[in-house]
Amino acid sequence: MYRKILAVMCAIYFFATSLTAYASMPERKIGILKGVSQVNLQVSEPCIMINPETKEKIDNIEPNKPFTIDFSSMKFNVMEIRGTINLRSTINGKKYFGGVRINKNSNSLTVINLAPVEEYLRGVLPEEMPPYFSLEALKAQAVAARSFTLKNKNLHQSEGFDLCATTHCQVYEGVSSISGITDKAVAETSGMTLCFNGSVILATFHTDSGGMTESNANVWGTEVPYLQPAEELAKKTQVWNVKVDKEVFAKKMGADFGELRSITLSNLVIGQAANDRTTSGRVKTALIVGSKKSVQLSGIDLRSKFSLPSTLLNIKFQGGEVIFEGYGRGHGVGMSQCGAEAYSKSGWTYDRILNHYYKGTELKKLY
Ligand SMILES: [Zn+2]
Asked: Are 39 and 85 in contact (CB under 8 A)?
């Protein structure tokens, strides 16, 4: 439901986007279907179908009347259906905000939703943060999602659209997922975007830091001035443990590792660095000693090898098992969603929450 933003996007885009003031609400192309031979469509108001390459009108489309676009009978390489801001388009039975674009590829169709950004966010926010969270936390999330959306035009350029509708970018379920409070959070922050030094920021977020957030540099290797460790109201939240049989653990260290003898890792104190821990206390490295060789593993490698919820953890032995005991969920960089909820409940407004997790940033209304 709510989770990530992927490591892939981390620092690559940091310097990439310069700040644009928009004359009106921008639009994003959201990839809905790929590799299909036909698609069933319906629109909510009278529309025109155009060829966007030549601007020629192809046809008039009547409202509330289903029709099918078929690969073999489509005469243009690309067509778009557009209407007013109130247009809703149903694509294979699912209703979306805005119009539709269809790209004809060499042997299939790509179906794209042409979504005005603020409308698109109404379908994203309930998927990215639980709608039962409080309004100021939801507003902070709306600004983070908007910043992500505006920064990432053309993230899927090779496929012909800007963003996909899955966890890879942001989950977007169209009109079906909207709720009163998430709509209110989007409307009350309309156009508000986080900027740093004249650019829209990389507004990464995660479920729960466990007690302190982490710097971008310690997770994805690049120093980002506004993605630095931030304190939380509560420490040791979302306690978890993962048990791994010692033999299974040893096998994961490689065929030439032998038997697991010991693991060296200092004790976790949240907010206290050590040689083997970051400022927040997350595992930097752990020494894994086997009967045939030793392995120095990063916290991120440990998390990935054993599918751990976070790297804010201790490791201990008990019986024949290695036990990971930790806190929080996610990579820990940027805004903690549960932390934002805690600050919201303590009376903080969304702008204060955002400034806490994205240090030195400015809130700007871009349209
Ligand atoms: Zn994507």
From this structure: no
| Ligand 1: centre distance to CA 108 (Å) | 20
Owner of token pair 């003031």: 21
Number of C-beta neighbours around residue 63 at 10 A: 13
* Mean pLDDT, rounded, of the chain: 94
d(CA 147, CA 159): 22
Residue with tokens 């992927």: 6
Residue-wise pLDDT for 309-323, tens only, equals 999 999 998 889 999
1-47: pLDDT as tens digits: 444 444 334 434 444 445 556 878 999 999 999 999 999 999 999 99
Q: How many CA atoms lie within 13 Å of 248's alpha carbon, on the beta-carbon side?
A: 10
Q: What is the dihedral of CA 93, 184, 19, 163, to 10 degrees?
A: -20
Q: Which helix (H) or strand (E) holds 229?
A: none
Answer whether 6's CB lies under 8 Å from 206's CB.
no
Q: Which residues contact 100 (CB under 8 A, 6 or more apart)?
A: 41, 43, 80, 81, 89, 91, 111, 112, 113, 114
Residue 362: CB atoms within 10 A of its CB come to 15
The tens digit of pLDDT for each residue in 260-273 reads 999 999 999 999 99
Between the CA of 124 and the centroid of ligand 1 the distance, in Å, is: 13
pLDDT at 258: 96
Centre of ligand 1 to C-alpha 221, Å, is 22
Instruction: Tell how far the Cα of 40 is from the centroid of ligand 1, in angstroms.
Output: 23
